[in-house]
Amino acid sequence: MAKTYRVLTLNKIATSGLKRLPAHRYQVGDKVEHPDAILVRSFNMLEMDIPSGIVAVARAGAGTNNVPVKKLSERGIPVFIAPGANANAVKELVVAGMLLASRNIIPAVRFTAGLKGDDATMHTLVEDGKKDYAGTELHGRTIGIIGLGAVGRQVADAAIALGMQVIGYDPNITVDAAWSLAAQVKKASGIDDLLKHSDFVTLHIPLLDETRHLIDDKRVALMKQGAVLLNFSRDAIVSEDAVIAGLASKHLRCYVCDFPSNKTKGNDKIITLPHLGASTAEAEENCAVMVADQLREYLEHGNITNTVNFPNVSMARESVFRVGIANANVPNMLGQISTALAKAGVNIHNMTNKSRGEMAYTLVDIDTALSDTVIAQIAAIPGVLMVRALPLEADE
Q1: Of 43, 26, 57, residue with least CA distance to 306
Q2: CATH class, 311-396 region
Q3: 109 three-state secondary structure
């Protein structure tokens, strides 16, 4: 009988994603007991007591600020994400943010909402008052994009289509990302260089120790007079005090972000949205489908794609019997695993091993099922974090 996988949902997950987990093999819901895996969106897992049976966590989004990645890594648990699945939604919001700022749309809407009198009076008030809300066009302006991942590249394409000049900076850009970047994007020599030449600056980078308050007093001072800063990544990448001071001195024109706070509330030069970056039906469905597919592939076959803590590892099956091993990236691990299998008289059909930082992962196709004793012997090897037997079930 095929194994039934139990998946605990900590948030509402799009139905289109849940449908990727077939009901005859998966029990999915927010009341599932003794789960094998967790599906999450925004739920704060940082202080959560992670059940002992969990072998995978999948977040239907791109960031993991609400997931205890280090704690999970120490247990050999991969954390799956959905990079790029919400890129179009965020890109469209960035464009909207630029338009809101450049055309003074929000104060203009407030002005018209407060008009009183008959239509003739309102017409006169509009003609007299509209000069106070005159804006600038995006065409011909320069946008600086810090971070050229899936979102940053789409923002670049949209800006080019709007007739803008584009400067980009990303020291960690992948080869594939660089190949897909439009030729019109000019490479900045660094963040400071980008800030000096940009009318609009948009941030598309993760929140890490090195990116916390990346935009501080010194970098605000480097920005062009009248520049607009957009932050749809993470709030702490920007020093609110530095930006508020820059706006007060009129060095900056506007700050547009997705993270309201008491410091920014009520400032007429700051446009804050309620974390709407990925809040579209399409983005939620894309994220759910992507992580559900990745989760299923890992649970059933041990293959790994798009985690924040494991290497990508995929191997075509050469046997009904397979074992997946998560381990610390230390010397002689493959030798010890191979020796344990050889001593048990188990023949290896195929093996692959990859590492990422302190984490490594091994898949082995073998000719016989592993006994609990052999699994325990492999699990006892110093540095091994998790061992999973992955037989090909009869209905697959």
Answers
A1: 57
A2: alpha beta
A3: helix
